[in-house]
Write a structure and sequence with these properties.
single chain; 2 helices
Amino acid sequence: MLIKKIALMNECSICGDDFEGMGNNPDPINDGRCCDKCDCLVVIPARLMQLGVGIHAAIGVGRKDYALRKALIRERETGIPSRA
């Protein structure tokens, strides 16, 4: 029996773009769910800054996390291992 994967589409509560799946918790930015890009580039830096991390370091961590997530998704879709 063939089982179909049903794509769950949602709207990001930060940027408004549509994304597939459950998304991420956007706290402390707002309520709802957010896409991976906003989670990495907005939410994670905001959380790190609440902990006292400087803005440039927090944004750097978010950018690295986003690049890693994109590489892992690409690897899962293509089956080709990433270098990330």
